[in-house]
């Protein structure tokens, strides 16, 4: 054992004397033994120590710097030696519960409190036990055994249990928790624990079970109410809400039909009423201070109570008569009280004990348990309660909802759930609330009925979680409630009873602050502070349209006047204002723009023809006429009003600061009262009267003649189309989709922006299962969108409306950054940065073939020019370049390889025959002709462009840093505009237009006569076979069809199989025959020619001659290029050495320094391959940049790393062709002043230098460096993106 007080360690041998082994230990706590050593923990030294177990010597510290080390054990088989005899045997000694072995035999034992029925068996349950609460646990003392030990009932999350009761019929115990504000239950053994009631409770201090009709009664000292529900918490209703002041305990008498409760408010009293709240009277009102516990003795028909202020336990008759003090001494602070048989039991806070006495005389006092902190309620659980016949047991007493016991002669009465009235028959409840307030409280929605004489809030029982519910609206016609959640970014709806919950809008929302339901026109309108838009849709979310998108700065509340065709809204931006427009967004006018701060709530008083609004900044509720005139203040001051609504002659508003709902007269602002208090998180509020007529629907007759949206106006109606779609010339009908639009991806969504309309609003294309979409293209022939997903490593396609999604390539992909569709030949091309390949396949994913797999370092964007037969792509590896080849990968040519950084996006202008690309490192957009000539910078600087596309006179691009889509004039680079802002994770962008994919080539008809792949060239075409046979005979000769494969050859297709690399590896074993001009006569090829429909089948001699001619021309061209390249290399010293110390992505003399700054966590999670040198340094290692990782991950951390690019990139600048060796500093080691001075000096040096010798730009080795040797001098323009 250890003893912390004398600071020594002792050992006792079995049956021996106490031997002191080690002294001077500061605070030993736990001890264990293993072999010859003793181990112990010490609190003071925060260590684990050891010593010789025989002598106490050889002390040493095993482990230190431990925070309060506790118990310690040695885990080893020696500590639990085998071989001992198990005296309990294999069947637990025949014991039903515990088998306890002794030195010779064993004994059967029972759990605490359980009675032993014979030598081997225990009772299956407890028959009688004292149940009591101790705030953080609930315990029991069994009366089935004599030891009277208390035992904790195993319950979870008991925070502050106060009141208790029990029901032996189902074996449940019930308790209230005033910390979690809930009522809970569980079986007597702790199983089947559940929350019964957990809403609209503030301090539930009393609890009573009607075991006859299975009802739950409770008092709430916070709300000052007495409520009842079924035992499972359903059909809850308020019984008493008036003249209560801190009600405490409650007991019920189902035999007499009465309930009794104590009230220890300003005027302490004990009251009685029928269990249906009838016949309420005060029975005791004098000589009371803190009347706490109550108990009923059904045998003597007495009511007992304990008063902690008077320090007495008293009793009287059920009517309060014959009052007597039972115990008046030695009662410091009695709290809980119960009666069973001839005993009275109570808990006492001050003496921390449970005591009992004779219920008739108060004598024979006995302490059952002591030294128990925080004692609360107490009850005796037993299984012998009296059976009572009652009128509710037959057909629920004829009640539709609650049947409550009542005093004679009535015996019972019917009741309805909170807020619902009982009909005139006295049995049936109305279907629901007809007049009510409904309000949002962030995590729930609640209703307060105006049909009943008290205000009680009821939670809308929606079967879904709410995170931040803000705006709310009601459709009284169908009885549905609509709400917005700014965290989930959804608009949802359900029935008013909480059933049939569904999301009607889950895309394109940010912060929906205002919401209004047009129950007449069957539309929903909403404001969005995040997107600064006002939109409308059908009530099911279809046909969504942006109505207002300009000159909005935080629109909030919105209100509709359907009969007049107007909508009103508040805007609490920099210049707060209150505006009005027609319900189709036209005829917009500012009504009020002065003396406004935070105009939150907004309501229309149609009867009084006035507009009302609440301003949280000016702390006023104001009113004006419907034109903004005759402005006046209704209520002031109000602390922080948010939601505002109107019904009848009253206005209602929510207040953030007072956490309450207030009411006042709508005309005078007088008679302000608090409807409900203690409600944190209050947001929007609406008042609803379902009995009020809705009014005339202007669009009700044949939808106003409109094919899509019919929207009211002051002088009639107007037809409208969903966002981005133009109304046809008949002013009534719409197309199904825009004619020309941008299509872009942002990882988890694909969206479109119509170019037919001016609002430039993004609309989500409902493509399912998007994880990390990078690249896009489309096929105008079949109306399909194609996209790559680098999380799933697939290429998929779907209809342009998002339907019919299917996977076309599912294997052999690593990081597919670029995708292009050849709409003529029906092929698709893609770049794979992970495998450094460019591949092609048919649009359905068949006939897959590697076209380019050498001299690729980081291929990214790719584009096709089918009518010219060209394929273009960018490569942003060590030597950044833009290349071109024919569509079959032949005639490969580097178009541009100078002055490039990170060429991300690439697009073609088919009209002007120019290439456009974005450079995210040099921050610019450039263009050239199809041969890489006539190069010009279109826009500079741009922040961090990723992808671009072209339509008409505009170039559009996505930008990571500004999180926007922008455009400029493609000819001048001017007229820069932001098309869409505030979009995270922007990736690819394309234009879908009937004028975009035009032209044809020789593969356009009958696939050029090819069996598999047809690749167009400038004035010809070639046929090709897939890398893996697919079961069909393949020919590379147009018009030649091979025969079926030889017997035994497999013809099973191998879809999406990874192509072999290199691609020229011969296929061994039996295979299909690929018929070419060299093996035309091989068995399996036919000697007949199938002529292509338009004469593209050529004679074999012409083919051979043409091929030889082309080869000769190519050899001459190659020789000329090599000669000119060598000549220019010696002529231009500026490009004589490529000083790529990685990663620079430049072809200038500028060198790269790997910074000493700490790398972010993303560095260790790069998924791109690395080429590491043997020395483990950076000499040969190629580190891929953050941008690449961002393509693979959705983690915001990676985006945060990338956000640092621009501030750090601007820290230092160097000359493109100047000696930068003298610049021995980086932005990480300079402050702003030093950096500015260095920039000025460098600028002067740059302006003075005109020529350089090759030796001046030769990279120098450094013998000493604080970083691993990169092999090059470490001077460059710093860029966080490449550093990591």
UniProtKB/TrEMBL annotation:
<dbReference type="InterPro" id="IPR000033">
    <property type="entry name" value="LDLR_classB_rpt"/>
</dbReference>
<dbReference type="InterPro" id="IPR011042">
    <property type="entry name" value="6-blade_b-propeller_TolB-like"/>
</dbReference>
<feature type="repeat" description="LDL-receptor class B">
    <location>
        <begin position="869"/>
        <end position="912"/>
    </location>
</feature>
<feature type="repeat" description="LDL-receptor class B">
    <location>
        <begin position="522"/>
        <end position="564"/>
    </location>
</feature>
<feature type="repeat" description="LDL-receptor class B">
    <location>
        <begin position="214"/>
        <end position="256"/>
    </location>
</feature>
<feature type="domain" description="EGF-like">
    <location>
        <begin position="391"/>
        <end position="430"/>
    </location>
</feature>
<keyword id="KW-0245">EGF-like domain</keyword>
<feature type="domain" description="EGF-like">
    <location>
        <begin position="87"/>
        <end position="123"/>
    </location>
</feature>
<dbReference type="Pfam" id="PF00058">
    <property type="entry name" value="Ldl_recept_b"/>
</dbReference>
<dbReference type="Pfam" id="PF14670">
    <property type="entry name" value="FXa_inhibition"/>
</dbReference>
<dbReference type="InterPro" id="IPR050778">
    <property type="entry name" value="Cueball_EGF_LRP_Nidogen"/>
</dbReference>
<keyword id="KW-0325">Glycoprotein</keyword>
<keyword id="KW-0732">Signal</keyword>
<feature type="domain" description="EGF-like">
    <location>
        <begin position="698"/>
        <end position="735"/>
    </location>
</feature>
<dbReference type="GO" id="GO:0005886">
    <property type="term" value="C:plasma membrane"/>
</dbReference>
<feature type="repeat" description="LDL-receptor class B">
    <location>
        <begin position="565"/>
        <end position="608"/>
    </location>
</feature>
<keyword id="KW-1003">Cell membrane</keyword>
<feature type="repeat" description="LDL-receptor class B">
    <location>
        <begin position="783"/>
        <end position="825"/>
    </location>
</feature>
<keyword id="KW-1015">Disulfide bond</keyword>
<feature type="region of interest" description="Disordered">
    <location>
        <begin position="1253"/>
        <end position="1284"/>
    </location>
</feature>
<feature type="repeat" description="LDL-receptor class B">
    <location>
        <begin position="826"/>
        <end position="868"/>
    </location>
</feature>
<feature type="repeat" description="LDL-receptor class B">
    <location>
        <begin position="257"/>
        <end position="300"/>
    </location>
</feature>
<keyword id="KW-0472">Membrane</keyword>
<feature type="repeat" description="LDL-receptor class B">
    <location>
        <begin position="913"/>
        <end position="954"/>
    </location>
</feature>
<feature type="domain" description="EGF-like">
    <location>
        <begin position="1002"/>
        <end position="1035"/>
    </location>
</feature>
<protein>
    <submittedName>
        <fullName>Low-density lipoprotein receptor-related protein 4-like</fullName>
    </submittedName>
</protein>
<feature type="repeat" description="LDL-receptor class B">
    <location>
        <begin position="609"/>
        <end position="650"/>
    </location>
</feature>
<keyword id="KW-1133">Transmembrane helix</keyword>
<keyword id="KW-0812">Transmembrane</keyword>
<dbReference type="InterPro" id="IPR000742">
    <property type="entry name" value="EGF"/>
</dbReference>
<feature type="region of interest" description="Disordered">
    <location>
        <begin position="1045"/>
        <end position="1070"/>
    </location>
</feature>
<keyword id="KW-0677">Repeat</keyword>
<feature type="transmembrane region" description="Helical">
    <location>
        <begin position="1100"/>
        <end position="1123"/>
    </location>
</feature>
<feature type="repeat" description="LDL-receptor class B">
    <location>
        <begin position="301"/>
        <end position="343"/>
    </location>
</feature>
<feature type="repeat" description="LDL-receptor class B">
    <location>
        <begin position="479"/>
        <end position="521"/>
    </location>
</feature>
<feature type="repeat" description="LDL-receptor class B">
    <location>
        <begin position="171"/>
        <end position="213"/>
    </location>
</feature>
């Amino acid at each position: 054992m250890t003893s912390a007080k004398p600071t020594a360690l002792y050992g006792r041998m079995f049956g021996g004397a106490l031997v002191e082994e080690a002294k001077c230990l500061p605070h030993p706590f736990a001890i264990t033994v293993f072999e010859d050593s003793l181990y112990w923990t010490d609190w003071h030294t925060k260590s684990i120590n050891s010593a010789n177990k025989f002598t106490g010597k050889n002390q040493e510290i095993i482990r230190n710097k431990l925070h309060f080390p506790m118990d310690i054990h040695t885990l080893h088989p020696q500590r639990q030696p085998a071989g001992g005899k198990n005296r309990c045997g294999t069947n637990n000694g025949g014991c039903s519960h515990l088998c306890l072995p002794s030195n010779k035999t064993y004994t059967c034992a029972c759990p605490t409190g359980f009675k032993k029925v014979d030598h081997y068996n225990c009772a299956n349950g407890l028959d009688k036990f004292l149940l009591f609460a101790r705030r953080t646990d609930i315990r029991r003392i069994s009366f089935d055994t004599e030891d009277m030990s208390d035992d904790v009932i195993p319950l979870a999350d008991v925070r502050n249990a106060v009141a208790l009761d029990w029901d032996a019929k189902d074996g449940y115990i019930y308790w209230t928790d005033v910390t979690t504000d809930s009522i809970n239950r569980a079986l007597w053994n702790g199983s089947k624990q559940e929350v019964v009631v957990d809403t609209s409770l503030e301090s539930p201090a009393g609890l009573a079970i009607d075991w006859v009709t299975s009802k739950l009664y409770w008092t709430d000292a916070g709300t000052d109410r007495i409520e009842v529900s079924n035992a499972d918490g359903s059909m809850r209703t308020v019984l008493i809400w008036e003249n209560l002041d801190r009600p405490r305990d409650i007991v019920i008498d189902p035999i007499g039909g009465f309930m009794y409760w104590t009230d220890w408010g300003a005027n302490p009293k004990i009251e009685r009423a029928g269990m249906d709240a009838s016949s309420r009277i005060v029975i005791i009102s004098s000589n009371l201070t803190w009347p706490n516990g109550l108990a009923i003795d059904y045998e003597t028909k007495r009511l007992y109570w304990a008063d902690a202020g008077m320090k007495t336990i008293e009793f009287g008759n059920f009517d309060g008569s014959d009052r007597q003090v039972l115990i008046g001494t030695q009662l410091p602070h009695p709290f809980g009280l119960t009666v069973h048989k001839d005993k009275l039991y109570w808990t006492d806070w001050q003496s921390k004990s449970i005591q009992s006495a004779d219920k008739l005389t108060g004598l024979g006092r006995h302490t059952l348990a002591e030294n128990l902190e925080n004692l609360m309620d107490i009850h005796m659980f037993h299984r012998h309660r009296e059976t009572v016949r009652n009128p509710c047991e037959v057909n629920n007493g004829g009640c539709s909802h609650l049947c409550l016991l009542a005093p004679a002669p009535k015996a019972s009465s019917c009741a309805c759930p909170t807020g619902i009235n009982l009909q005139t028959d006295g049995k049936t409840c109305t279907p629901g609330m007809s007049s009510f307030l409904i309000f949002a409280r962030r995590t729930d929605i609640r209703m307060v009925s105006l049909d009943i004489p008290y205000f009680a809030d009821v939670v809308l029982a929606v079967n879904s979680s709410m995170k931040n519910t803000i705006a709310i609206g009601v459709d009284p016609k169908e009885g549905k409630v609509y709400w917005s959640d700014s965290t989930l970014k959804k608009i949802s709806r359900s029935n008013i009873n909480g059933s049939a919950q569904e999301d009607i809008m889950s895309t394109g929302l940010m912060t929906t602050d205002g919401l209004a339901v047009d129950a007449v026109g069957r539309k929903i309108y909403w404001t969005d502070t995040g997107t600064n838009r006002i939109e409308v849709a059908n009530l099911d979310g279809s046909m969504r349209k942006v109505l207002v998108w300009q000159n909005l700065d935080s629109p909030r509340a919105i209100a509709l006047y359907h009969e007049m065709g107007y909508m009103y809204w508040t805007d609490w931006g920099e210049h707060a204002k209150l505006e009005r427009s027609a319900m189709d967004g036209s005829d917009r006018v500012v009504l009020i723009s002065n003396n406004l701060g935070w105009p939150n709530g907004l309501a229309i008083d149609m009867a009084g023809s006035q507009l009302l609004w609440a301003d949280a900044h000016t702390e006023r509720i104001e009113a004006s006429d419907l034109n903004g005139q005759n402005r006046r203040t209704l209520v002031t001051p109000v602390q922080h009003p948010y939601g505002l609504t109107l019904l009848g002659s009253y206005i209602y508003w929510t207040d953030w600061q007072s956490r309450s709902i207030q009411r006042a007269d709508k005309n005078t602002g007088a008679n302000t009262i608090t409807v409900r208090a203690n409600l944190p998180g209050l947001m929007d509020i609406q008042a609803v009267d379902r009995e009020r007529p809705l009014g005339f629907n202007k669009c009700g007759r044949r939808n106003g003649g409109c094919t899509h949206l019919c929207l009211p106006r002051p002088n009639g109606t107007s037809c409208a189309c969903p966002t981005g779609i133009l109304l046809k010339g008949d002013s009534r009908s719409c197309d199904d989709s825009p004619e020309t639009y941008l299509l872009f991806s942002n990882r988890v969504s694909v969206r479109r922006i119509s170019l037919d309309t001016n609002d430039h609003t993004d609309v989500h294309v409902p493509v399912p299962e998007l994880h990390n979409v990078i690249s896009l293209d489309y096929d105008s022939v079949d109306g399909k969108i194609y996209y790559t997903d680098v999380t799933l490593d697939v290429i998929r396609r779907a209809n342009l409306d998002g339907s019919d999604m299917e996977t076309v390539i599912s294997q052999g992909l690593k990081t597919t950054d670029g995708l292009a569709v050849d709409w003529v030949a029906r092929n698709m091309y893609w770049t794979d940065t992970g495998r450094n390949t460019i591949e092609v396949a048919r649009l359905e994913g068949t006939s897959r073939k590697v076209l380019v797999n050498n001299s690729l370092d980081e291929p990214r964007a790719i584009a096709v020019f089918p009518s010219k037969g060209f394929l273009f792509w960018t490569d942003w590896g060590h030597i950044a370049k833009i290349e071109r080849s024919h569509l079959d990968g032949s005639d490969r040519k580097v178009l541009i390889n100078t002055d490039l950084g990170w060429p991300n996006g690439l697009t073609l202008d088919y009209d002007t025959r120019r290439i456009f690309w974005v450079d995210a490192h040099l921050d610019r957009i450039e263009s050239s002709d199809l041969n890489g000539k006539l190069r010009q910078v279109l826009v500079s600087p741009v922040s961090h462009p990723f992808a671009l596309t072209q339509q008409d006179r505009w170039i559009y691009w996505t930008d990571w840093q500004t999180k926007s889509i922008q455009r400029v004039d493609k000819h001048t680079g001017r007229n820069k505009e932001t098309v869409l802002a505030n979009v995270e994770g922007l990736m690819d962008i394309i234009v879908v237009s009937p004028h975009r994919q035009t032209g044809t080539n020789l593969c356009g008809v009958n696939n050029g006569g090819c069996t598999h792949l047809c690749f167009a060239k400038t004035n010809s075409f070639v046929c090709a076979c897939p890398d893996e046979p697919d079961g069909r005979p393949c020919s590379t000769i147009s018009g030649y069809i091979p025969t079926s494969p030889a017997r035994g050859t497999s013809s099973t297709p191998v879809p999406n199989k990874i192509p072999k690399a290199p691609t020229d590896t011969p296929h061994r074993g039996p295979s299909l025959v690929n018929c070419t001009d060299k093996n035309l006569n091989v068995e399996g090829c036919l000697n007949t020619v199938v002529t292509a429909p338009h004469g593209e089948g050529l004679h074999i001699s012409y083919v051979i001659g043409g091929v030889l001619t082309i080869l000769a021309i190519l050899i001459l061209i190659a020789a000329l290029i090599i000669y000119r390249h060598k000549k220019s290399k010696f002529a231009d010293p500026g490009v004589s050495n490529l000083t790529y110390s990685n990663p620079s992505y430049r072809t200038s003399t500028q060198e790269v320094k790997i910074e000493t700054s700490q790398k972010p966590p993303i560095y260790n999670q790069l998924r791109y391959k690395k080429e590491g040198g043997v020395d483990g340094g950076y000499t040969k290692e190629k580190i891929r940049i953050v941008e690449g990782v961002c393509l693979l991950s959705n983690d915001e951390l990676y985006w945060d790393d990338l956000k640092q690019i621009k501030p750090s990139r601007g820290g230092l600048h160097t000359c493109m062709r100047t000696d930068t060796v003298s610049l021995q500093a980086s932005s990480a080691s300079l402050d702003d002043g030093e950096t500015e001075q260095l920039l000025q000096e460098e600028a002067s040096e740059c302006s003075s230098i005109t020529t350089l010798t090759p030796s001046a730009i030769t990279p120098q080795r450094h013998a000493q460096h604080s970083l691993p040797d990169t092999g090059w001098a470490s001077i460059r323009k710093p860029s966080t993106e490449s550093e990591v």
